[in-house]
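Fold it.
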Amino acid sequence: MLLTLHSYILRELLKNFLLSVLTLTTVFTLGGGLYNSIRHEGVGPADLFNVLPMLLPIAVTYTMPISALFAVTMLYGRLAADNEFVACRAAGINIHWLFTPAILLAVVVTVVSLFSMNVLIPSAMREIKFYAKRNLRDIAFHKLRQAGYVDYNHVGSGNRYVLTAQSVRDVRDGALVEKGFPPPNNFVRYFWVDSPCFLWIDPDERLRRWAVAEGGLCQFDTRDDEVKLTLYVRNARDFEAGRSATLIRSQKIGPIPAPFPFPVKPNMVGLNTLLRWREAPWEAPELADDIESLQVGMRVFDIFTEMGTRLEAGQPILLTDLDNNRYTIRSPKVRAADRSLRIFEVELERTVPDQTRPIRILAPRGQIRVGLNPDGLLSAAVELESEGETSVAEYNPRAADYNKPIPKDAYATPELLLPAELVDGIPAPTRANVIDDTHPLGNEMLDAQREKLQFGLQRLKRKVMGEFHGRLSFALSNLVTILMGAILGVVFRGSRALAAFGLACIPFGVAAMLILIGKQQIESSDSTLVGATVVWGGLTLVAVLDVIFMRLGVRR
C-alpha cells in the first residue's frame, strides 16, 4: 500500500515539476532576458534558434529548484487539504514516510544540478563565446541596421573606435572575388555600408582622427585569436585632429585588431579541473603565461650568472649568428642587471668565414640581452656603447689601415644563438619551483614578478574554492529547501497553498543569498573559513528548521 501511495505522489510530483520547468524556462528564455539581450546587441530574431540550445542548460539548471519547490508545495498542500495525511495516520502509516517522493525529487534535482554545473553549463558557455566570435559580422550588421552604429573599446590602449552608417547591406560573393578580395567563408565575411563615418577616440575622450566616405566595405577576419576589422572606403575625407585633412578616392582603414579573449575561467570548467588547478596552478590558463614568463626569466638570469662567472674567470663567450659568423666576447668586469648582463672593458671579435682577420671591436661598456626569439628559442644580442670621451673602436680588415680604429657611438649585433653546451647545462626551472616563494631569486625584477604571480596564484585558489563551495552548496541546498516546501505545504494547506509557496521561497532565497555572500567572501579573503561558515551555516539552519517543522508542524 505504501509503495502504491509513493508511486501516486511521485507521479503527480513529476507532472507538476516538469510542467513548471517548461513554463519557467520558456518565460526565462523567450519572454525575458534572452530576447531583450539579442535585441540590445543587434542580433536578429532568427539567431534565437541557434543560441537557444546553448542557453537551455543554463536556464533549466536555475529553474529546476524553484519548479521543484512549487511542485512539492502545491501537491503536499493539496494532499493535506484532502485529509490524505489523516487517512494514512488512521491506517497506521507513518506520515513521515509520505515525504519520501519529495526527498527523491530533491535528490534528482541535486544530481542534475551538479552534472549541469560541472558539464553542461561550462560546455554551453564555451559554445556561446565561440558562436559570438564566429558571428561577430552578423552582430555588427544588425546593430548598424537597428542602432546606426557599432563601437569597440580596445582594452590594451584604451582607444575607442566608432563606426556609423546611413544604411547597411549584403554584398554579392561574385562581386568581391572580381575585385580581388578573398572569397567569403566561415572566417572572412563582408558587408557594405553607405555614408560611413569612422571615429578614433583616445583614452581621454578626445577625437584624434575621423574619416567620412561615400561608401565602404567592411571585412571581418576571425581566423586568428584576434578579430581583424578592415574598412575599404570610397571617395573618402580623412581628418586628423589639429593636423591635416586629406581627400582620398579610395582608402583602406585597418586592419584594426580587436582581441576576442576566450579565457577559460573557473566558472567554465568542472570540479575535477578546479581541484586540479588548485594542485597544479600552471595548468590554469589565466596563470600559464605569467608562470612561463617567470620560468624564462629565471632561466635567463641563470644564464647571465654563468656567463658572468666565465667572463670574470677570463673565459670568452662564443656566440654565432644565423649566417654562421662567430662572435667572441671578453670582459673582465661584469654586473648582472634586471634585464641584461652589463659588461665593461669589452672586447668583441666577429669572425667572418671569407675574411682572414676578424672584425675587432673595443668598447668601454655594453650589455648582453637574452630572450626568446619568434621560434621560441633562447637567443642573445650584444649592445656596445661609448662612455664620456671614450668611444666604441672598430678595427675592420676592409679598412685602409686595420690598426687604425674607426670610432663609433655604439655597436649592436644581430640575433645571436647561444652555445648548446651553455643552454643544455642550465635547464629550465620546473613550474613547481617557479611558484615556490620560499627561496629568493636574487633579482629584484624577478622577485617582483614572482610576488605578482603569488598574488594571482592566491586569487586563483580563492576563486577555485569559491566555485567549489558555491556549486556544491547550491546543489545540496535543494535537499533542504525542497523538503521545507513540502512541509510548509502540509502546514498551510488548502486555500493557503500559495501562501505556503511564498513562505517556502523565504528559506530558499535566504539560502541562495548566503551562498552568494559566502562565495564572495571566500573569493575576496585569504581565509575560506568565514565564507564557508556562511555558506554551509545557512543550509544547516534550514536543515534544523526542517527537522523542527517535521516533528511539530506535520505531526500536528
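Confidence is low (pLDDT under 50) at residues 38-42.
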